[in-house]
Design goal:
Strand order of the largest sheet: 1-3-2
Oligomer: single chain
Length: 105
């Protein structure tokens, strides 16, 4: 019984943490623009930074927040790190939003 309660608690906590980091990542227009760029193709941080008029460390910070939220994944190829969008996370968020719209009986 305790294990079941613990699992339920952890599941709720992880869900809340997941959703909080997701909404935090989506709250910024620069991060949403980065996602739009990555929707078209995988890119390096330098290629992404070239699309903006902000510093490369700022772009790295935005990419880090997107990675923490699970919206972006990275893969090292040689000396470059390529970033790509992870749409699975958005599917999970949509599933959560749909559950909110269901009326309890």
């Amino acid at each position: 019984m305790r294990i079941k309660y613990l699992f339920r608690y952890l599941s709720k906590y992880l869900n809340e943490y997941f959703l909080n980091s997701l909404f935090k990542a989506l709250n910024d227009p620069t991060r949403r623009e980065i996602l739009d760029l990555l929707k078209k193709k995988d890119m390096t941080a330098g290629e992404i930074a070239d699309q903006f008029n902000i510093s490369k460390p700022s772009i790295s910070h935005h990419l880090d927040l997107l990675k923490q939220a699970g919206l972006v994944v990275s893969e090292k190829e040689g000396q470059f790190i390529f970033y790509s969008i992870n749409t699975t996370v958005m599917d999970e968020m949509l599933k959560w939003l749909m559950q909110l719209s269901k009326k309890e009986k």
